[in-house]
TrEMBL record:
Keywords: ATP-binding, Coiled coil, Cytoplasm, Cytoskeleton, Microtubule, Motor protein, Nucleotide-binding. InterPro entries: Kinesin-like_fam (IPR027640), Kinesin_motor_CS (IPR019821), Kinesin_motor_dom (IPR001752), Kinesin_motor_dom_sf (IPR036961), P-loop_NTPase (IPR027417). This is Kinesin-like protein. It comes from Glossina austeni (Savannah tsetse fly). Its main location: cytoplasm. GO terms for biological process: microtubule-based movement; mitotic spindle midzone assembly. Pfam families: Kinesin. It comes from the Eukaryota. The keyword Ribosomal protein does not apply. GO terms for cellular component: kinesin complex; microtubule; nucleus.
Length: 734
């Protein structure tokens, strides 16, 4: 059994906890760690198991408890039946077993993210898993089992109900931000919208296949709403198909070919789809209707593993815009800087799949290739992020967000904005074992990545908190009173004292008969008694309120004084810090200048080194050329020498033979023809000539003399023949 030992798991958990818990040593370190613990959080990874289709199906998963799960290699996959079954244990934040309801998932995973959204924080929630493992079911659900998205919308609208701004007060600036419109402009936009037939229809009824859940959560548990703010909700819905981004809510009918969009970075370094259509919605029903319109454009396809398989990654963004209101329930300032924007991105990733199992070909195969590539990039990004966070001493790796559109869109979540959660969907069938192993490994790695949670900057207008409350309180009984006046329902328990009215108008009475007069007088008396009592109650209430107000004012005055003192000390601190920071800035400038200078010097030196290298190279080339020339000359001289040697050898062989022949013939002629002294002296002179010629002949060569004797000539000696005797006189060379 290849299990992670319990020790290892606890170590892992301890390590994870260590990263979020403050170190107890020095006070300063503790403070710094506290800040880290507050602002850093790991990716939350949840695991959801899909129910098996039939009881006979083999299962490859065993749940240990709500956080531990074991993946078992199915027996039939093993070659050898005797071999030990391979098991791997994984630990997640929570494991939802197959019987877990959609509500369970929403409450544990998405509800806290909705709360964060209301507070103005960003959040990313995505589903990850093999094709057909239940990602879309978890994210969207169906008519009877609504998923996370409709539940989020329902919770959100139920929470902000009564605090929503009028439509078109907030307007998108098409650069991922919002501006505040004047009421007159907003009214005119509302008028235009009301005139559009489509919108009127939409408002009248909604009867789509998916409806928002009506009981998504217990609202008493939800926190985070600022009752002094006004809220508006905007949605965008995009898909990433074959690594291109498309706006599923683009204007035009559903058959229209969608335009590919680019991803851009806004002024706050958040990534957004440029030119995407942001639709302001006022209710969950309206949001679902808009979602369904986009859904019709989403690319779905049939694969062997899932009849309705998502062939693209879909990103549904809920953006909550809020700004402070004044006590008249209008926005307190037209300044766009007072706006806080929170974004919750719900992402349904396309399923990872193996082409061998899906039997995909053609377009489906290309889609699958693109899906797998983008998921691989997601895995790489998270792996590099984790590495960078764990090895703080090494040079950080560049995260390849731009390699896939989906990771490019996620960049600002991973780089530090908001909370990231992932639901890993697992189909526990034995056939999915291999792919589930990969999914689990990725999930395990992902939860070691730390994300910095950014706190939104809220613009302080200096308005008192709770300013909208009195107006709201006043509105409630007044509206109740309206009903009280008109309806017969006498049991309405209107809190009339708070609006300081003495009650209903003077009752009508008729005094036609004495009996009528009697009863009218009684009624009027009762009415007046009630009225007097109410007056008393109101007076007491008013007096107590005056007292309360006085106490409250005194308290506020005290608070104000202490706050002013605090403000003064803060001002002093601020001034000191300002001085310190300007001193640091000037230091930085000096260091920057010296860095610039050093950089320039380094560049100059590098240029010089380059020049010297070039010169050396040139000299080397010249030397090589000279060597080559020398070699050529040597070869030419050698060739000439060989030719000369051959010539010389040939001459040496030829000359003595020729001369010997001529001497012999002349000797014979001379001996035959004359015996005279003159004649013989001529012969002698000829002989001397021969000897002179023979100087250059090789050593130990034999020559014929007149007497027919052989003579050996040594090269080291010069040899002569005496004219009378013909003897050879040898003389040593000097
Ligand atoms: N927890 C569950 N309970 C009941 N049915 C489920 C559950 N999860 C998934 N299903 C059913 O399984 C089928 C496939 O699920 P779904 O379409 O959500 O898979 P997917 O992971 O999104 O697939 P793909 O990646 O191909 O889009 C659907 O018919 C869905 O209703």
């Amino acid at each position: 059994m290849m299990t992670r030992t319990p020790m290892k798991v606890t170590e892992m958990l301890q390590q994870r906890e260590l990263r979020t818990q403050p170190l107890p040593s020095a006070k300063q370190t503790e403070k710094a760690s506290n800040v880290l613990a507050k602002t850093r959080e790991p990716v939350h990874v949840f695991c959801r198991l899909k129910p098996l289709l039939s009881d006979g199906d083999l299962c490859c998963v065993r749940v240990i408890n709500s956080t531990k799960i074991i993946l078992e290699q199915p027996f039939q996959v093993l070659d050898n039946k005797q071999a030990a079954q391979k098991e791997t244990q994984y630990v997640f934040r929570h494991i939802f077993e197959s019987q877990a309801s959609q509500q369970d998932i929403f409450s544990a995973v998405a509800q806290p993210m909705v709360e964060s959204l209301i507070r103005g924080h960003n959040g990313l929630l995505f589903t990850y898993g093999v094709t057909g493992s239940g990602k879309t079911y978890t994210m969207t659900g169906d008519a009877n089992n609504q998923g996370i998205m409709p539940r989020c919308l329902d919770t959100l609208f139920r929470t902000i109900s009564g605090y929503q701004a009028k439509k078109f007060i907030f307007k998108s600036d098409h650069l991922n931000s919002f501006e505040i419109q004047l009421e007159a402009d907003a009214r005119s936009d509302r008028h235009i919208e009301n005139n559009q037939y489509f919108k009127r229809e939409l408002k009248r009824k909604y009867a789509g296949p998916l409806t928002p859940c009506q009981d998504s959560c217990d609202l008493t548990l939800l926190q985070g709403i600022n009752k002094d703010n006004m809220y508006a909700v905007f949605i965008t819905y995009v898909e990433v198909y074959n690594n291109s981004v498309y706006d599923l809510l683009e204007e035009g009918n559903v058959e229209k070919r969608l335009q590919s969009r680019i991803i851009r970075e806004d002024a706050n370094h958040n990534m957004f789809v440029h030119g995407v259509r942001e639709i302001e919605i006022e209710s969950a029903e309206e949001a679902i209707e808009v979602f369904q319109t986009g859904q019709k454009r989403k690319r779905m396809g049939h694969t062997v593993l899932n009849a309705e398989s998502s062939r693209s990654h879909s990103v549904f963004n809920i953006r909550l815009v809020q700004a402070p209101a004044n006590c008249q329930e209008e926005l307190a300032s037209p300044d766009a800087r007072t706006i806080t924007i929170g974004q919750l991105s719900l992402v349904d990733l396309a399923g990872s799949e193996r082409s061998s199992r899906t039997k995909n070909t053609g377009l489906r195969l290309r889609e699958a290739g693109n899906i797998n590539n983008s998921l691989l990039t997601l895995r790489t990004c998270l792996a590099y992020l984790r590495e960078n966070q764990q090895q703080t001493n090494a040079a950080p790796k560049i995260i390849p967000y731009r390699d896939a559109k989906i990771t490019h869109l996620f960049k600002n979540y991973f780089d530090g904005e908001g909370q990231v959660s992932m639901i890993v969907c697992i189909n526990p069938r034995a056939e999915d074992y291999d792919e589930n192993v990969q999914v689990m490994k990725f999930a395990e790695m992902a939860q070691e990545v730390q994300i910095v949670r950014a706190t939104p900057i809220k613009y302080n207008l200096g308005l008192a908190s709770g300013r909208r409350k009195p107006n709201k309180i006043r509105k409630t009984p007044v509206s109740n009173l309206d009903g009280f006046d008109n309806a017969e329902d006498k049991n309405v328990d209107a809190d009339v004292r708070l609006v300081y009215t003495l009650g209903l108008g003077f009752p009508e009475y008729k005094i036609d008969t004495p009996a009528q007069a009697e009863s009218s007088i009684q009624d009027l008396t009762q009415y007046l008694v009630r009225r007097t009592e109410r007056r008393k109650i109101l007076r007491t209430d008013l007096e107590s309120k005056f007292d309360g107000l006085r106490v409250h004012l005194m308290q506020m005055e005290k608070e104000n004084l202490s706050l002013n003192r605090e403000l003064d000390s803060l001002h002093t601190c601020y001034k000191k810090e300002l001085d310190r920071s300007s001193a640091l800035e000037s230091k930085i400038r000096v260091h920057e200048n010296s860095i610039d200078f050093l950089n320039n010097t380094v560049k100059r030196r590098e240029r010089q080194i380059d020049d010297i290298k070039r010169q050396l190279k040139h000299q080397q080339t010249l030397l090589d050329k000279k060597d080559e020339e020398k070699e050529n000359q040597r070869k030419t001289l050698n060739a000439k020498l060989t030719v000369e040697r051959d010539k010389h050898n040939r001459l040496r062989k030829l000359k003595p033979a020729t001369l010997e022949d001529s001497i012999r013939s002349k000797d014979e002629n001379l001996s035959e023809q004359c015996s005279s002294r003159e004649q013989s002296s001529a012969v002698e002179s000829l002989r001397i000539a021969f000897v002179t010629t023979a100087k250059s002949t090789p050593r130990n060569t034999k020559y014929l003399t007149r007497r027919g004797t052989a003579t050996v000539v040594d090269r080291r000696h010069r040899s002569f023949l005496t004219p009378d005797e013909g003897h050879i006189i040898k003389r040593s060379r000097i």
